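To the wet lab folks,

You asked to see what we're planning to order before we commit. Fair enough. Below is the target structure as tokens, and below that is the sequence we designed to fit it. If anything looks off to you, flag it before the synthesis order goes out.
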């Protein structure tokens, strides 16, 4: 007897219940979390009509009838789902059409996250999704590390040496991320860091990816005190924001830092905070995604993973900060607010502002 259809390992490891149906609305597969939540075997759901899972009303059916690929995800609040007369389970449901017409349903059980934004479930969901990929990344990273070491012996000085060092640093950062995913450990203690050092690393990555197609502009406040944080996590978060801007067709990307006094982050007011803005002149955030862009698996691009902004928001929270945005076509700004101490080791953040290209 053939095995039931499944997701790839990364999606099957998600703690968020997810189900996939074909373009006609018949279930193709669900992940383990969905089966456990609904109280049914993964083998029994395939080939069932998706709308048959709704216990009362026809909100799911009506949403599916009008759902097109270009619409973006659609949210239904407090939907009651059950399998063949089983006990109903209540969830806020996100529906989206994938390229090719297949349907993806993501359920956020309301009894598990009462009164919370479903994105609060991100730490576990995102960790589980990435852990499934970590095993596959180890071997290629080891190969890249070896190649970088060989290149370093032959590169000499100058630009080639700088590029090899960039490759080696990124491979090391990714290797550490893989190790953390495979062997979870307490977050490493935050340390005083120069936020502009983080931004300069991101600028180098952007220059290598976009070349001269994108103008990168630095607008730094050199008087900022050190920030206590994790440089690798912050590099990843900012790189996700800059890379999104590049992929949105931006011709200009500005990285701006400022001190903000009396900054409110959530329910707390901080005497001093870092305000970091990543601005671009690309296409902007689609209006249909305006309220969902920080949710995992939500993307405005057909080939997007929908994890970049979710991870960036999580990194902001890890540092006691927040991530928000404003957008219209031709002008999008993502704003990262992070609490700052008013002193500490390391001197001012530096360097002077200017244009990277």
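Sequence we intend to order:
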């Amino acid at each position: 007897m053939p095995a039931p259809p499944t997701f790839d390992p990364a999606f099957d490891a998600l703690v968020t219940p997810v189900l996939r149906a074909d373009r006609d609305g018949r279930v193709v597969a669900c992940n383990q979390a969905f089966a456990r939540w609904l109280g049914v075997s993964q083998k029994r759901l395939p080939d069932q009509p998706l709308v048959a899972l709704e216990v009362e009303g026809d909100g799911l059916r009506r949403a599916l009838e009008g759902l097109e690929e270009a619409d973006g995800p659609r949210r239904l609040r407090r939907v009651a789902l059950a399998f063949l007369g089983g006990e109903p389970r209540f969830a806020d449901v996100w529906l989206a059409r994938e390229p090719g017409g297949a349907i993806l349903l993501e359920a956020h059980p309301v009894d598990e996250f009462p009164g919370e934004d479903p994105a609060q479930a991100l730490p576990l969901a995102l960790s589980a999704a990435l852990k499934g990929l970590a095993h596959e990344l180890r071997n290629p990273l080891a190969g890249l590390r070896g190649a970088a070491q060989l290149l370093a012996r032959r590169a000499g000085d100058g630009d080639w040496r700088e590029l090899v060092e960039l490759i080696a640093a990124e491979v090391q950062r990714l290797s550490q991320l893989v190790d953390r995913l495979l062997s979870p450990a307490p977050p490493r203690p935050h340390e005083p860091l120069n936020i502009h050092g983080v931004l300069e690393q991101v600028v180098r990555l952007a220059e290598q990816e976009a070349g001269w197609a994108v103008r990168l502009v630095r607008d730094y406040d050199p008087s900022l005190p050190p920030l206590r944080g994790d440089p690798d996590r912050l590099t990843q978060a900012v790189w996700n924001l800059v890379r999104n801007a590049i992929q949105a067709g931006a011709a200009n990307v500005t990285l701006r830092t400022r001190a903000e006094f009396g900054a409110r982050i959530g329910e707390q007011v901080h005497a001093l905070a870092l305000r970091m803005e990543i601005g671009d002149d690309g296409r902007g955030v689609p209006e249909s995604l305006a309220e969902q862009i920080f949710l995992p698996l939500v993307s405005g691009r057909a080939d997007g993973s929908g994890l970049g902004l979710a991870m960036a928001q999580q990194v902001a929270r890890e540092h006691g900060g927040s991530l928000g945005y404003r957008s219209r076509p031709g002008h999008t700004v993502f704003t990262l607010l992070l609490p700052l101490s008013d002193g500490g080791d390391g001197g001012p953040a530096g360097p002077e502002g200017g244009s990277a290209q």
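Structural context that might help your review: The radius of gyration is 22 Å. The chain is about 35% helix and 25% strand.

Thanks,
Computational group
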